[in-house]
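Lab meeting prep.
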Amino acid sequence: MKLLLIYWAFLILGYAAASWIRRKSPREFTRLPALMMVTIYGLCFVMGLRMGVNEQVTSNLGVIGLKALVITIFCVAGSMLAIFAARKLLGMDRYGTVKGKAVELVAETAAEPVAGEIETPEAQTDAGPSGEEADSSSMDIRSTIILLSVVAAGMVIGAFILAPRGEAFLDWFDDRSNLTMVVLLCGLMLLVGFDMGHSGMVVEYLKAAGLRVMVFPLAAMVGTMVFGIGACLILGLTLRESAAIPLGFGWYSYAPIVIAEAGQQFMVASAISFMHNVIREVSGIIFIPLAAKKIGYLEATGIPGIAAMDICMPIVARSCRGDTVIYSFAIGFIMCIVTSIGVPLVMGV
């Protein structure tokens, strides 16, 4: 609970500082994304080191990957089914329309401008991907490959260089690496809060969403948790681990770290959580256009989890209708809040 309060203090501090700067002297912080990625890479490298020194993780990598894939399939399916059920109960069609009226955007989205008249669903769905979207997806996939490489490098160093150095060193390393992850997480939360405050869009999006739209984050979370916990229990994980893993909602740079902080006995669960969250985000990048065309716009926003409010927003804006971005942002934002509170509480960190 103490660490949770510290993380949230840094998040709020970052948001408040960026909001104040935006009001006093608006300017672009072009290096902010790069700084966030460096922090994420640092977190993932340390996590890789901790996984590498844990023999239980290194000897079960194939099983860990398979479990992560199964959990992801269940979580995504649960999220989409719950959103589908919520949409039907609210009398909305597959384009997110009630009685022929779409939710109206009150401002440009942070991901992609939506101006003028909203395109018809048929026109947007049949159109091919723009060059900008293709470049964005390519960059996201490259970032994921780099991220996996960083974790893999950490695991190799941990397994072949650190692990043979003896129990006394490993005890020292466990304490120091845990402290390093806490410090880096505080830095990441500060940057995340700063990014939200600098965009100035959080309040506007939530106002535009309204109460009806807020049903869908709840549906996506309930579907994810019910199906995810079920899959984890079937795969032999403990109830505590089974609740924490799907509760990550795709936040691979936060949830696995918090799970790892709970102790070495949870390193396998942390590894599964990391792989699951990475797979979920990549699934959003790849499958949102297909799901939007074949299933429904709102269901497509439930695939990536938290990434629905950042990396996947341009893909949602292009693959769906402009106003669908509001649903996408609401799902990602509410999931982000729940994850930042829920995972530490479940793990007792």
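Slide two material, second protein:
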Amino acid sequence: MKSLKFQVAVLVLISFALGCSEFIVVGILSDIATGLGVSIVRAGHLVTLFALVYALVTPFIATFLGRFRHYYALLALSVIFVLGNLLSSISPNYTFLLFSRLLTAVVSGPMISLGFTFANILAPPAQKARIVSYVFSGFSIASVFGVPLGTWISAQAGWRAAFAAITVLSVLTLLLCLLALPREVRSQVTGIKGQLKIFTDRRIQIGILLPLFSAAGFYTFYTYLRPILSDQLKLGVKAVSLVLFAYGLTAILSNLLSGRLAAVSGLKLMPAAFTLQAVLFLLLLPAWKYRNLALVLIMVLGVTMYLLNSPIQMHFFSVAEDDYPQSMVLASSFNSIFFNFGISLGSFVGSQIVAWSGIPYVGIGAAVLALVTVLLLALLNLINRQASRNS
């Protein structure tokens, strides 16, 4: 039962369950607002606060759990994850639902950190980047298939039923973790201060800014993708759903390409990739007049959305393995932590652009942030070359 393929499938299922749990509120926001008698804005706070707690709490819990056997730490977190979704499924009011969502957020970041740690430990060296990209793809699959299914369940049986379905999925994931994952795996034991030493490394200081600014750039645009399709490009409801589904497939492709790039060139090709992304964002402004051209640009942008995931994750693993083995679980959390901070920054920047200039100009702000990412990538590649020469 503990073949590598089975273990990787379970790790992908973990990220899929986490993705469904995190993203589901977006798909059922109106149902929650109506069902609990709150405004859509207040219901939206469930998304904002989830991401904020996720980002703020994860490094502390990951640091604390780094001292324990990863198998038992993951199981303990999984039990709390099941409980959080179960409480969401029976929430009688908004306050109770908010509490249950924040409880789920507290454990979601450390769970995926441990998932990536297992992927890095279990995978043969030649397959690490590819397997890490598979684990990342669980989130994209959740966005493409899991969230629409949850939205359909909510429409048929109520929003609580959607959380009940995620609870069942979470229990199944927990049981498979019991069967699949090795029990003796742990990182080098050290105190919290020793684990935090990794933050003194310039490769980490620059590295953590990359998921932040890359996500900020993309979510300046992506946050408004639905109104872009319906209001700017004047697509009907069915056409919007079809385009969003196709866009989700490009995001899955992006994750798979990310693994390939990480294995072949690491971060070396990333400046070129984000320069291309910035150009595509800039081209959106004149392309709005030509619907088909704009749709092509949007689909190509989807392919660039997650290209950084595996290369930067492998960068964090490499630095931790070589110089800070005691910080492996903490290092595994960096991408998800700062990506969530980037989502918050990007959605804020996008909202300001829309308020002051309108939806057509979100590509300009996204391009600026993508170019910041290019500069940071160039700097990090320079630092890595210097470190390689000195070693």
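Talking points for slide two:
Residues 270 and 377 are 7 Å apart (CA to CA).
The chain has a mean pLDDT of 89.
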